[in-house]
């Protein structure tokens, strides 16, 4: 079984990216993978500080998030764009998860995993600028980045009251891309 984790870069109650994460979770399960949606709101953590790390070590929420990522074969990110970049919520969580108990770099939560980046933002670019930065970051910490990208522009009008895509062609595109990502992940796992 292919184990996937889905993380959203927004924890806002009405977040488009949380809706997107839930849709992609369904696509993963329909595609035969085991997907777990991790909500960062359940892992509250301070802004990364080297002094805090030296004094107190890793926060328990960081250890819990690292543990949740550890057994995943692949990770799917859904992230909005803030000023052309990923959200501080997501960046901070990634930064903490690249740290170890000995206050040094540890990439074991990420290295060797496949990753898929999706974004939903109200602007015409749909968060693609943030997605580019996120992909670059993930490559730098040893992830195998899927060349696919799911970009939802005009996100405020993209979902119905049940959190489903209004445009069925976007739903079809999401399903196809997730199927391809599952194949990509399986190939990496067996390589
Ligand atoms: C500080 C800040 C910067 C933003 N910059 C952009 C941007 O560069 N491009 C864009 O499309 N939307 C931008 N937005 C709008 C967010 O993408 C929008 O609020 C989005 O709905 C947040 O994602 P969510 O619905 O998943 O919470 C920005 C919002 C904030 C708060």
Architecture overview:
The chain is α/β, with parallel strands linked by helices and 191 residues long. The chain has one domain (3-190): Flavodoxin domain (Rossmann fold). Helices cover 41% and strands 17% of the residues. It contains six helices and five strands, in the order βαβααβαβαβα. A five-stranded parallel β-sheet has the order 2-1-3-4-5, with helices on both faces. Helix 1 crosses helix 6 (168-190). It starts with a strand and ends with a helix. The mean pLDDT is 97. It binds flavin mononucleotide. Residues 10, 12, 15-17, 80-84, 121-123, 127, 155 line the site of flavin mononucleotide (FMN). Flavin mononucleotide binds at residues 10, 12, 15-17, 80-84, 121-123, 127, 155.
Secondary structure layout plus pairing:
Elements: E1 3-8, H1 16-30, E2 34-38, H2 50-56, H3 60-70, E3 74-78, H4 88-97, E4 114-120, H5 128-140, E5 144-152, H6 168-190
Parallel strand pairs: 1-2, 1-3, 3-4, 4-5
Helix pairs in contact: 1-6
Residues 10, 12, 15-17, 80-84, 121-123, 127, 155 line the site of flavin mononucleotide (FMN).
Structure characteristics:
191 residues, alpha/beta, Rossmann fold, five-stranded parallel β-sheet, 6 helices, 17% strand, binds flavin mononucleotide
From the alpha-carbon coordinates, what is the Rg to the nearest angstrom?
Answer: 16 Å
The set of bound ligands, ions and cofactors reads: flavin mononucleotide
Percent range of helical residues: 40-55%
Number of domains: 1
User: Largest beta sheet: what is the strand line-up?
Assistant: 2-1-3-4-5
Main sheet? Answer: 5 strands, parallel
| CATH homologous superfamily assignment | Flavodoxin domain
């Amino acid at each position: 079984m292919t184990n996937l984790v889905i993380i959203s870069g927004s924890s806002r109650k009405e977040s488009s990216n949380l809706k997107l994460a839930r849709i992609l979770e369904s696509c993963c399960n329909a595609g035969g993978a085991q997907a777990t949606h991790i909500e960062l709101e359940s892992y509250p953590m301070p802004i990364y500080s080297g002094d805090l790390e030296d004094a107190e070590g890793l926060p328990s929420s960081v250890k819990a998030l690292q543990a949740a990522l550890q057994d995943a074969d692949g990770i799917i990110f859904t992230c909005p764009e803030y000023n052309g970049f990923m959200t501080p919520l997501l960046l901070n969580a990634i930064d903490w998860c690249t740290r170890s108990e000995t206050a040094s770099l540890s990439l074991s939560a990420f290295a060797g995993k496949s990753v898929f980046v999706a974004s939903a933002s109200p602007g015409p670019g749909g968060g693609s600028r943030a997605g580019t930065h996120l992909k670059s970051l993930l490559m730098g910490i040893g992830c195998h980045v899927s060349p696919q990208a799911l970009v939802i522009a005009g996100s405020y009008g993209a979902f119905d009251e049940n959190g489903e895509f209004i445009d069925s062609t976007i739903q079809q595109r999401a399903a196809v891309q997730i199927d391809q990502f599952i194949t990509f992940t399986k190939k990496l796992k067996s390589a």
